[in-house]
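Re: beginner question about structure tokens

> Can someone show what the tokenized structure looks like for a real chain? I only ever see the sequence side.

Sure, here's an example I had lying around. Input first:
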Amino acid sequence: DEYLALFRYSDVPGMVGRVGTCFGEHGVNISNAAVGRLSPGDEAGAGSDVAVMAVTTDAPVPQEVIDQIVASDGFVAGRALSLSASPPRWRTRSPSRHAIAWPERTS
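And the corresponding structure tokens:
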């Protein structure tokens, strides 16, 4: 799949479903999805309450859909990518206690 959406979000129940529902409401079909987070015993220390989701889709995800998801409670950042096109900008929700300084790509 050449289309990818990435999200950072609070690790609480229902977040994966919210992304799926929003995508469905906008006619975006999910072909694959994966989620992950640090566990309390991981090398990074005491674990994390922030998770990451990667979703591949059959078609590009409109920036408006990413913006709508990231603007909702519990989401930290999101980005839609086309693996065959130039990289788009990150959409980050601010301010947030989970704010991550994601580097801007300058190529």
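Each token stands for a local structural state, so reading them left to right follows the chain. The CA atoms of residues 33 and 55 lie 4 Å apart.
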